[in-house]
Each structure stands twice: as structure tokens, then as C-alpha cells.
Design brief:
By secondary structure, the chain is an alpha/beta fold. It has a single domain, classed as Rossmann fold (3-Layer(aba) Sandwich). It has 10 helices and 5 strands; from the N terminus they run ααβααβααβααβαβα. The chain has a 5-stranded parallel sheet, with helices on both faces. α9 links the parallel β4 and β5. α8 packs parallel to α9.
Amino acid sequence: MRQITTVLLLPFTLLLTGCAAQPAANSSAAPPAEAPPWYEGEIAAFEASDAGAMPPAGEVLFIGSSSIRMWASLADDMAPLTVINRGFGGSKTREVLAVADRVVFPYEPSVIVYYCGDNDLGTDNTDSAAAAAGFTEFADLVHERLPGTKVLYLSIKPSLARWSNWAAMREANRLVREYCRTHDDVEYIDVAKPLLGPDGTPDPSLFRDDGLHLNAEGYARWKLVVRPRVFAAWRAWRLG
């Protein structure tokens, strides 16, 4: 009986021994590659454009989220100054910082016009200090790497789609305005007020159907306040 039991157990013993001797199936496999950031395609396209024709140093750079990217009339609105549009839709302040070495510093711009923070706060994030800190960190880094470059902050805009969170956006704007008052070569531009109607709420005629992005008339309002400040900053940069 003992012999029969031994014979019956032997195949199982060999099977278990063989399994133990085999290395784990994935022990030597390489870890899965991390997916590239969602914005990589846009940034790579900017770099490809630069490889074909790098803008000369000293131009005016517009950087930030879709409110910059979708400013279709920007080149005409700032003429005869030459502008570089490096807005990428959906970006937040940390993402602008993440790509600064690729689409900010290589241009050695005379003036940087910055719009971001709108997406940081969205409809329900009330961390105004973090949104403001993203910009102040950017401005400090610019002045460390490119002393003398003028940085213009376009205030976070009110919109129909995100009006419910306007209090947090207004507070972020206030924090940045205070920073600008105590730092050289950085300016605050109020692009919020021109978008408000007589009742103090966003004017629907200035927005696209999504209630978030500006239409041509909305950008025309921005041009009236942004253009003179860009030209003044550029002249100041030239005078050194």
C-alpha cells in the first residue's frame, strides 16, 4: 500500500519541483513604459516648428492655456511686433513650468505674456494660493534665467462656464497683483473687467458657445488692454 501511495504521489512531487525551479514569468520583464504627458504632442509640434525656423531672440512670447492658443488674431493684434504663440489647451500652471525649458527659455524673449490658472481652479477648486504660486514660481524662474525679461500676467478671466468659482479666481488674481507690486519686471494686466457686463457678470456676447472660451469680440476687448502694455514692456526692454 505504501508503494502504491508513493507511486501515485511521485508525478505531483515532480510537478511541484519543476514549478519551483522555474523563474517567475515576469521577474526579468522590463517595467511598462510610462505614457507621455497628455500635452506632449503639442509641445513636440512646437519643437518641430522651431527646428525648421527658430524664432530670433528678443521676440514677444505668449504662453499658457487655450485662451492663448485660441487667440487667432494675436499676430495681427500685436503687429508690428513679432509674437510667438505657445499656448497649449488645458494646461495648468505646473504644466507650463514643466515645459519651460522647451518652449520658453530657448527663445530668450524680451516680453513674456502669461495666461494660466483658469484650469487650475476650474469650477470647484478653491486653492487660490496654489494657482497664484504657479505663476510666481514661473516669474522667479524667468528672472533667474533671463534677467531683464518682462513678464506680464493676464488675470484669470471670468466666464459663464466657471462663474460659480469666480471668488477663488478673483482671490488668485489678487495674490498675483500683490506679488507684481513688489517685484521688478513683472506686471499685472486686468483682462477680467473688460469681459463683464453692466450687471457685473460675464457678457455672453463675448464668449463662444461653450461659455468658456472667448470669441473674436472677446479677444478684441483683450487687445485694447493688452496691446499697449506689451508695447510699453517691449520698449522698456529695448532701453535696458
